[in-house]
Design a protein that fits this description.
The protein is built from 3 helices and 22 strands. It has about 260 residues and is mainly beta. The protein is globular.
Length: about 260
Amino acid sequence: MKFSILPLLLLVSNFSLQAIGYYQPGDTLYVWAVSGLTLRKEASLKSAKLATIPYGTLVVAQNYPYDDKVEVEAVPAHSSDGQKSPAVMLEGSFVKVIFQGDTGYVFDGYLSRLPVLKPVKASNDWPDFEDFDVWAKRNFRLAAEQKSGVAEYGSYHTAKQVYANGFSRDNWVEKSGQSRFILPDVSLEEAFLLFNYLHQYEWEIRHQSNEPNATQWIHTQAGKYEWRFGNINCEYKILYLPEEKMAVITSVCSC
């Protein structure tokens, strides 16, 4: 079976994810907004628009993030099988950047030190993205790998990959397929962005289908830093450790 890579966090009321908040002036950040990130004249969501910075663009922070926090709706609220799931709200601040000669401010909820996932093809105006392993190997280098026992469909009963930046992934197959990701220096927000693009979450919420086999997303909140997310096949959990600045993500999928 094919494992789902990264889970999203789920909730029973509007939730905010921790924005990247520990960058410094001079740090290089990537734009993770698929539709582009708005460059504004002032540090306000109501300020005049100067330009749209495309997905994947590198920008350099000109200042520390502002203390004032704002929230932006990343994914709207929705209902699945009569159960309501609230909007995904990204919490962040503004940072000054320069883009094509214009100096302005961008919302940092869509900025990350992580290089973006590469689109591999477009589907219904929304791109499919490369697999997590392809992305991680290219950007961080596979430092060690261990596999044992061949399972169905060419997968392994157990497998572990460790990358040079400290990321690691464990997979194992028993009565179900399970995985665990340990991601140092990854915020809840960044985990959401990875999940969103790997699973086309936002696209499926904005274009819900009434077909019997269509994906149905259900959200629950287990705690301030523990969020659960599931559909008919998989259950996900992400645990964020704020002091360690680390995300631990697990999934259990039926075979």
